[in-house]
Specification:
single chain; about 240 residues; mainly alpha; Glycerol uptake facilitator protein; 10 helices
Length: about 240
């Protein structure tokens, strides 16, 4: 149970700090409105650092169903733990984004921009094109997960993979690089829990003027990252043969 608890805590911290920077930029009456895209990508990178650092020694700090599934495909994580990890990640994401809402309650109440409110919870694409949005999430997550294999496991495809505390900074820099380079088209979910968990809370929480939760898009940040991560695992195994 301890591994599930820390996967929950790590994901909650990730989303609290990650969606927190987006709320600071996009909501009305905050001090962070001028931070822009660079500020958002820096904030998400630091959010990943905190989440991974806290959870790494106990749960391995997957914090992402795409990572959990990829590690299981590669034989570095037991399939019997996958469902529990994914549940913990989704619950952590829902909790973290709820804490953002509580922290910015007055700002949410005074913001009329529905797109800004939604973006502080979840992702929508800059250009609505489901196929190409899927391609972007697929490629970004492929790059993300393949790099994680080498950051955490190196070239030994037969050994265990764990995001120990010393690897928290490289993973944070990796997320920063993905955000700056590939985040523009879709907002770089690269994590099903990061998108779907907060999207559910956007639909549930009593936020004035929040608008729709863009459910038409919800499948893309789920299946794009899972598919990209799965391919990264297969490529990692193939390179190691």
């Amino acid at each position: 149970m301890e591994v599930y608890l820390f996967e929950f805590i790590g994901t909650a911290l990730l989303i609290l700090l990650g969606n927190g920077i987006v709320a600071n930029v996009t909501l009305k009456n905050t001090f962070g409105a001028d931070a822009g895209w660079v500020g958002i990508t820096l904030g998400w990178g630091m959010a990943v650092f905190v989440g991974v650092f806290v959870a790494a020694d106990i749960s391995g700090a997957h914090l992402n169903p795409a990572v959990t599934i990829a590690l299981a495909i590669a034989g570095n994580f037991g399939w019997d733990l996958v469902a529990g990890y994914i549940l913990a990640q989704f619950l952590g994401a829902m909790t973290g984004t709820t804490l953002v809402w509580l922290s910015y309650k007055k700002q949410y109440d005074s913001t009329e921009d529905q797109a800004g409110i939604l973006s502080s919870f979840t992702n929508t694409p800059a250009i609505r094109s489901p196929f190409w949005n899927f391609v972007t999430e697929f490629i970004a997550t492929f790059a993300f997960v393949l790099a994680i294999f080498y950051i955490a496991g190196g070239t030994d495809t037969t050994g265990p993979i764990s995001l120990g505390s010393l690897d928290a900074l490289p993973v944070a820099l990796l997320v920063l690089a993905i955000g700056i380079s590939l985040g523009g088209p879709t907002g770089y979910a690269i994590n099903p829990a990061r998108d779907l968990g907060p999207r559910i809370m956007h639909a549930i929480l009593p936020i004035p003027n929040k608008g729709e939760s863009a459910w038409w898009y919800a499948w893309i940040p789920v299946f794009g990252p899972i598919a990209g991560g799965a391919l990264a695992a297969l490529v990692y195994l193939w390179i190691g043969i």
